[in-house]
């Protein structure tokens, strides 16, 4: 169960969040990851040091170092104590020209650096209405994961029309695409496809978590808005 804070919370707010939330979070049998902004990573790592909550970044560059103004490398994330990294979120694809090709380079670099990549895919409303969801998601997976076969991969299916809109995909819609993704991974990654974790993301909240998690091919969730609030404790502790 992963929380993506996007561009929210200062360092001070990050420390306060963990002070308030950590006592309530029960990680027993669940992997919990929080992805704050780069600046808050160190505070988040420190705050969660004695717990099972892990920290992830929201992006990284694929090069070691060099003239890439404004970017952060895998080595820098590792040094800060980060264990996960979200790659190819739809907001990065839409607003910052992230492509399947750059996602592919980042995923390779993350794995080499022993960071667990959470690779995001998902169609927009227009594509869904035109019946292009499966073709589009297949292309995203094939290109983003070209040359990669690794059981550490995490793939997040986040239909763009369900992100931040309050419109959650029904569990049937979410499962249908996650099952399809498992099949595409099976063609690509053979036996690893059963070990690769597939997450659903898009307006996940404390009321729909249980039903989503009951789906066969949904192994976890990537939570945006609701991960900023006390709701996240309820989501993590869902029964
Ligand atoms: P919301 O949960 O706010 O819809 O965001 C989902 C998301 O983009 C997580 O990466």
Major sheet, described briefly?
8 strands, parallel, barrel
Helical content band = 25-40%
What percentage of the residues does DSSP assign to strands (E)?
A: 5-15%
Treating each run of at least 4 consecutive H or I residues as one helix, how many helices? 10
Compressed to H and E, one letter per element, the order equals EHEHEHEHHEHHEHEHEH
Please state the structural category. alpha/beta
Q: Give the C-alpha Rg.
A: 17 Å
Bound molecules: 1,3-dihydroxyacetonephosphate
Strand order in the sheet with the most strands: 1-2-3-4-5-6-7-8
Q: What best-fitting shape do the alpha-carbon axes yield? A: globular
The rounded distance between the terminal residues' Cα atoms is 13 Å
* Number of extended strands: 8
Mean pLDDT: 97
Low-confidence sequence ranges: none
Verbal overview:
- This protein has 239 residues and is of the alpha/beta class.
- It has helices at 11-21, 41-47, 74-79, 90-95, 100-112, 125-129, 133-144, 171-189, 209-213, 231-236; strands at residues 2-4, 32-35, 53-57, 84-87, 116-121, 154-157, 197-201, 220-223.
- Strands 1-2-3-4-5-6-7-8 form an 8-stranded parallel beta barrel, surrounded by 4 helices.
- Strand 2, helix 2 and strand 3 (53-57) form a beta-alpha-beta unit.
- Helix 1 runs parallel beside helix 2, helix 5 (100-112) packs across helix 7 and helix 7 runs parallel beside helix 8 (171-189).
- The radius of gyration is 17 Å and the shape is globular.
- The mean pLDDT is 97.
- The chain binds 1,3-dihydroxyacetonephosphate.
- 1,3-dihydroxyacetonephosphate binds next to strand 8.
- 1,3-dihydroxyacetonephosphate (13P) binds next to strand 8.
């Amino acid at each position: 169960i992963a929380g993506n804070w996007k561009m929210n919370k200062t360092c001070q707010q990050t420390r306060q969040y963990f002070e308030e939330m950590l006592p309530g979070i029960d990680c027993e049998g669940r992997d919990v990851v929080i992805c704050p902004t780069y600046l808050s990573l160190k505070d988040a790592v420190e705050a969660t040091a004695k717990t099972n909550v892990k920290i992830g970044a929201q992006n990284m560059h694929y090069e070691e170092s060099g003239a890439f103004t404004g970017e952060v490398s895998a080595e820098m994330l590792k040094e800060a104590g980060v264990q996960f990294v979200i790659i190819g979120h739809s907001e990065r694809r839409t607003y910052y020209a992230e492509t399947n090709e750059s996602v592919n380079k980042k995923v390779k670099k993350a794995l080499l650096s022993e960071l667990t990549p959470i690779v995001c895919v998902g169609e927009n409303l227009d594509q869904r209405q035109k019946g292009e969801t499966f073709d589009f998601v297949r292309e995203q997976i094939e290109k983003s994961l070209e040359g990669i076969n690794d059981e550490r991969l995490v793939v997040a299916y986040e239909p763009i029309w369900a992100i931040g809109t309050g419109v959650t995909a029904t569990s049937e819609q979410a499962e249908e695409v996650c099952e399809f993704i498992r099949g595409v991974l099976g063609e690509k990654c053979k036996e690893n496809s059963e070990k690769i974790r597939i997450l659903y993301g898009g307006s996940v909240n404390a009321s729909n978590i249980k039903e989503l998690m009951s789906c066969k091919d949904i192994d976890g969730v990537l939570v945006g808005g609701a991960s900023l609030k006390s709701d996240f404790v309820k989501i993590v502790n869902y029964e």
